[in-house]
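Researcher: We're teaching a course module on how sequence relates to structure. For the next exercise, students receive a sequence and then see the predicted structure as C-alpha cells, so they can try to spot secondary structure elements on their own. Here is the exercise chain.
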Amino acid sequence: MGKDVIIACDFPGMEETMTFLEKLGEERPYLKIGMELFYAEGPGIVKRLKGRGHRIFLDLKLHDIPNTVGRAMKVLDGLGVDMCNVHASGGVAMMAAAAENFSGTLLGVTQLTSTTEEVMQKEILIDRPLKDVVAEYGGNCRRAGLAGVVCSPLEAPVIHGECGGDFLTVTPGIRFAGDAAADQRRVTTPSVARELGSDYIVVGRSITAAEDPQAAYIKCRKEFIG
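Model: And here is the predicted structure for the students to work with:
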C-alpha cells in the first residue's frame, strides 16, 4: 500500500458532510467516518460515500468481549468498509475475533493522540513509558492478525522497529505548521509524519476548516507524499 492522506469527516450529519465534499471538486479522497457521523446517519452514510468513489476508514474503535466484537465486525464488513479499527487494549483474542470477520484493513488503536504519558500513567493507570506500551500493543496487534495500528506519528518508528516496515501506521494528530493543536497533544506536520515513517495520516480541521479545503488537501498530499 502506498502512502495516503485520510480526511476526518467529523461532521454532525449528512448535510454538512456533503457540503464539505462539494468544496473538493473532482477530488475523491480517502475519508474517515467517526462515531459522531456514523451514529447520526447509520450505515447509509458509508454506502453513499462509497457510491461517490471514496474509500472509507470507519473509525469506531470497537472494544468488547471477543464474540461481540467478532459479530459486530462481520456486520461492518458487509458495508464494504475499506479500513476499520478496534482498541488494542481489548487483548489478542478480541482482536483476532475481529480479524477473522473483516476482509479489509484492520487496525488496533494503541494510545489516543489526546493522551499524554502523564495522563496514561496517572489516569489510565498504566505506569510505564508510553512508547513501550505502544510497542507492546503493536506486537499484540500483529500476533492477532491485524494489518497495523493507529498511533501518533511520533511512535511510527517504534512500531516499525517492533513489527516491521510492512506493518501499517495510520497516524492522526496532524496539523499544518501554525495550526492550533486543539484537543490533540502528540502532533506533527504532514512532512514530519512522512519523515517519521507514517503510512497514512489522518487530517481533520487543517483541511475541513480551511478557507479553501481543496487547496489544503492538495497541499497536505504534496507535503506528505511529495
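Model: If you want an answer key for the exercise: The two ends are 16 Å apart (CA to CA). The chain has eleven helices and eight strands.
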